[in-house]
Design brief:
By secondary structure, the chain is an alpha+beta fold. The protein has a domain of about 230 residues. About 20% of the residues lie in helices and about 40% in strands. It is built from five helices and 15 strands.
Length: about 375
């Protein structure tokens, strides 16, 4: 009789202690239709690639650069080139669509065992066991820079926003011709080149007179300004032969969602003549992302995928431990950028006791960051 009493008390203890039930949202064995749903997060990698575009503009007198100016380093044809200046790697958290869980309490126990959850706006769990007026200030308040689902998989921003207008100084008349109506239309290219070289020599002499004090005029604080403008005018005439370049920075943003077990993923293609291109383009070299995992969790008794999707967890919440991962961006086997980040979906899933517990989660990784008993 005494043993029977102890057995009944033991069963009652376990029954009383198993009031919360957590199950996968797609669990076919669960017949519960109501309850609280929460997500565990996954991490999306945001790759910001800064590409410099240089446009080359041939000067109108380029064919006379060597003959009249003695210059051999000049732009011979119009063209464009691209180069990668910088790559930044960051992570963004979003709900993992494959890891949605339902937590419910039997009807007769709902008043005794309330469901005190807090979530991010996306439904990712941030805490359990805290009443609304007792939520820690650092739970659920972390602002995301942006959400990848609000963005296209591939974005582009250009700085400056407007294309720089490239123009060349015009030779309006030959200073040795006294006819005021003599304009550029009456000068051949060779004659324009002669005038340009003459102007360069005159400006060079004016510059020499300024810096040596030959004119014996005290220009005071304006001397620096006059020297600068003189050199700028000389450069404008020289550009008639050597040509001009214009530069702008193109910011390309690509979002990659790593899949569990992945070691590499193609990001884009890059060509110095065409810039950053889609992965399926036929030009350029493949730019790829490589993952190097730092820990293997061999000593952690984590849950299997089958157990996660088919089991009922009594008085337990499921959480993630992310994997520390080094992310390398490579182009033609050269590492262009490297950063160590935490990737949730490369990690493992475990369970923790929730009854009479106060638990805080990192909403970016799904990891427990604080746990205490009520």
């Amino acid at each position: 009789m005494k043993k029977l009493f102890l057995l009944i008390m033991l069963c009652a203890y376990f029954y009383a202690d198993a009031q919360y039930i957590t199950t996968h949202a797609k669990n076919e064995f669960s017949k519960q239709t109501d309850g609280i749903y929460y997500y565990l997060p996954r991490n999306v990698l945001r790759i910001d690639i800064m590409v410099e575009q240089i446009d080359y503009h041939k000067g109108p007198l380029a064919e006379y650069a060597e003959q009249m100016l003695g210059v051999y380093d000049y732009i011979r044809t119009d063209g464009v080139s691209y180069s990668i200046k910088d790559i930044k790697i960051s992570t963004i958290a979003q709900p993992d669509p494959d890891l949605c869980f339902q937590v419910y309490v039997e009807d007769k126990n709902r008043e005794v065992f309330p469901l005190n959850f807090n979530f991010t706006p996306d439904g990712v769990i941030s805490s359990f066991g805290y009443k609304n007026d007792m939520i820690p200030v650092d739970v659920g308040l972390k602002e995301k820079e942006e959400h990848p689902k609000e963005k296209r998989p591939h974005e582009k921003d250009i700085f400056p926003k407007k294309d720089e207008e490239v123009s060349f100084i015009k030779i309006l008349m030959n200073p040795d011709n006294e006819d005021e109506n003599s304009g550029i239309s009456q000068l051949t290219l060779e004659e324009q080149a002669v005038v340009a070289v003459d102007n360069i020599n005159r400006i060079q002499q004016a510059y020499y007179d300024l810096v040596t004090g030959y004119q014996e005029v005290n220009y005071g604080n304006t001397m620096k300004f006059m020297v600068q403008k003189t050199l700028e005018l000389k450069n404008e005439y020289e550009c008639l032969f050597t040509g001009k370049t214009s530069r702008k920075i193109i910011k390309e943003t690509i979002y990659i969602t790593p899949e569990p077990g992945q070691e590499t993923v193609n990001v884009a293609r890059f060509s110095s003549s065409d810039g950053l291109l889609p992965v399926n383009a036929k030009k350029g070299e493949i730019m790829k992302m490589q993952f190097k995992n730092e820990n293997n969790f061999k000593d952690v008794n984590y849950l299997t995928d089958e157990a996660i999707k088919t089991s009922n967890f009594n008085n337990k919440l499921l959480y993630r431990i992310p994997r520390n991962t080094t992310v390398d961006i490579l182009l033609d086997n050269e590492v262009l950028a490297s950063k160590q980040v935490k990737i949730s979906q490369f990690g493992v899933i475990l369970s923790c006791v929730m009854n009479k517990m106060k638990i805080k989660f990192d909403s970016n990784t799904g990891q427990i960051i604080s746990i205490s008993r009520e």
